[in-house]
Amino acid sequence: MVNIKPTTLGALKKSGYQSRSVKEEIRRNLIARIRNKEITFPGIIGYDDTVIPDTERALLSQHNILFLGLRGQAKTRMARLMVDLLDEFIPCIPDSEINDDPLHPLSRQAMELTARMGDDTPIRWMHRSERYGEKLATPDVSVADLIGDVDPIKAANLRLTYADEKVIHFGIIPRCNRGIFVINELPDLQARIQVALFNILQEGDIQIRGFKLRLQLDILFIFTANPEDYTNRGAIVTPLKDRIESQIITHYPRSLETSLQITGQEARIMDEQAEKVKISDLVKRVIEQIAFEARSSEFVDSKSGVSARLTISSFENAVSAAERRSLINNEKETTVRISDLYGVIPSITGKIELVYEGEQEGPQHVAYNLLDKAIRSLFVQYFPNPDTFKKKKQPVVENPYLQIIQWFDRGSKLQLVMDAPDKQREQNLNRVQGLRDMAKSYFPQASAKETILYMEFILHGLAAFSLISKKPMESIIQFGDLLGTIMNFNMEEENDPDSDRDKH
Questions:
Q1: Average pLDDT for residues 438-456, to the nearest whole number?
Q2: In terms of Cα–Cα distance, which of 97, 95, 60, 63 is closest to 173?
């Protein structure tokens, strides 16, 4: 049976329709979802025991909400998903600037229309997707933008004086009446503009210029803010913060598994890329670990935060690096290598804010350092910790890395060309004595391609633990013995006439 919606005010009254506030709508629909064991915020990962329960409690309490957290913590996405908790359709007066409820009109235009046409007043059914408004707070936002002002052009066209309410041009907040309105980065809003929001939050009405206008707006307000903004660019004025009933603290993924899920969901990998390029779980974990290392790095500003967008962009770049290499070598398919991760450096440098010491080191050097730390952290989950063999005097046979290290100690070097074909890479890695045997001994069930990946991972891991040297260049990664590399570097520096070392 087709459900025909009323098209006039009279038919709406006969249907028994009852108006509900936005917060009542959301509360009832949320209750239904919780009872039916439905997911209330689909696509949000890692907040099941923290942010989502806090948000559900706030919505059940019919509170306005402030999401407080660092960048890239899904604050805006949480707000946008609340649209799905609204009723699918609600009736409104056609052409109303503030989405007037036919049963309880607010604007003068809507009241005059219903008074003139009575039960014949036409009805428009508004979809919930139309009931969402969002504004990024910037220093140039004005009260007129948010609340409204007198429109001289409208006054001239309608031949009205400025004393007539019809000359008012409503701002974005009144136009979101009966919906959800989001202000992102609230502290960036000038203090005098924040003051203009007091009445709306406390009394639910707005005031424009000198008009005796009190529109009881029906809006769920969601605000987002970064804690750093309180001391950096601006602050939330205390009376406004006091009027926001629930403040919810967001956070970054607390486990690598959660971070993996987020990146897997958000990364934009095209079908043709997915068919040609395979990426192992090991490489995925190294990419995620980079973000965890950045969040604890002494060179990275922890107050600024490290967005989940770092790992998403890095994942996309790693796949593209492998795809580019396969195109150069005319290979039908390939896998992402550890060396391909040097192609994600631009995704790292653009996503981190450095402290003074980090600026001195240089963003690229810091990015290399984060990659090495990520490899070091994960290496001990796959192979024995090399530090245990450096600190303890154990029999030579117990050190599984000894044969590999001795190969380099004899003066042998290994150069891995980043864009080399897969076969050439395999041949080069096979030159290192003991490398394949070690990879196979710890991962005997690994496929041929996985074994090659583990062989490369071992070299990067030993370099991260300072057992061999690693020197990344523009298109080559060179591995060698640690002591010889240090001595050569010192000799080059002494012979360099432009060296910054003090000359005595």
A1: 95
A2: 97
